[in-house]
Design goal:
Blueprint: H1 11-24, E1 32-33, H2 35-42, H3 46-59, E2 62-65, E3 69-72, H4 77-101, H5 104-119, H6 129-147, H7 150-159, H8 162-170, H9 174-192, H10 196-221
Antiparallel strand pairs: 1-3, 2-3
Helix pairs in contact: 1-3, 1-8, 2-3, 4-6, 4-7, 4-9, 4-10, 5-6, 5-9, 6-8, 9-10
Domain HTH gntR-type: 8-75
Protein name: HTH-type transcriptional regulator McbR
GO molecular function: DNA binding; DNA-binding transcription factor activity
């Protein structure tokens, strides 16, 4: 694991670094992660490390195996395909409802997060995967909130795995990330126009594009 220099040592600080290293492949799937090793890397006690590992297990970045320890979570091709199947069905319906129910202040917040993503740039060496993923997550959370469909949102939250979304961003080319930005901008336009059919269609295209990135990555790594 990469030595951490000048990084805070709270559980949240440790989580942020590990999320980015897992997503970027610095810590590959099935790599073993120990409290002792992380405490030494971050120059801290095992208490914040233990809390960080607990959070990362809950988020799906790590898995815990009794009598073996904690490992970077791996995802099968079947699991990933199933997650994208659910996203296509549920998230497009959420976008459709959001177009009917979104409030002006929610639309303004959405534009703020999209602008923040665009300021990070689209060249691989110029952007932070963790920050891009965080702003993207907030953007999509606003769509869920605006839908006023709590049951659908719970279904989506149960299905969507943050590590998969974040690892997709880490593997986007500049043109693919630019396309994602265009989808977000078109979603904003559809919401502003209060056009449910337009919003559903753009969201389906957005998720299908991300799915193809994941499929390409699996082919290249196999």
């Amino acid at each position: 694991m990469t030595k951490s220099n000048g990084v805070g040592t709270t559980a949240d600080d440790i989580c942020a670094v590990l999320r980015e290293q897992i997503s970027a492949g610095v810590l590959p799937p099935n790599a073993r992660v120990t409290e002792t090793g992380l405490a030494e890397t971050f120059g801290t006690s095992r208490t914040p490390v233990r809390e960080a590992m607990r959070l990362l297990v809950a988020e799906g970045f790590l898995s815990f195996k009794p009598n073996s320890g904690s490992f970077v979570r791996s995802w099968s091709g079947e699991e990933i395909e199933e997650i994208f199947d659910i996203r296509l069905l549920v998230e497009s319906s959420i976008a459709e409802s959001a177009a009917r129910n979104i409030l002006p202040e929610e639309l303004a917040e959405m534009e703020k997060y999209q602008a923040a993503m665009e300021r990070l740039g689209v060249k691989l060496e110029e952007r932070s995967v963790s920050e891009t993923s965080r702003f993207n997550r907030e953007f999509h959370k606003l769509i869920s909130q605006a839908s006023r469909r709590p049951r659908l949102v719970r279904m989506l939250e149960d299905a969507v795995k943050v590590p998969i979304v974040q690892s997709t961003f880490s593997r986007y080319t500049a043109s693919e990330l630019q396309r994602s930005h265009h989808h977000h901008r078109e979603l904003i336009d559809a919401f502003r126009a209060r056009n449910p059919d337009w919003a559903r269609a753009v969201m389906q295209c957005h998720i299908s594009s991300a799915r193809e990135v994941m499929r390409r990555n699996r082919r290249q790594s196999s």
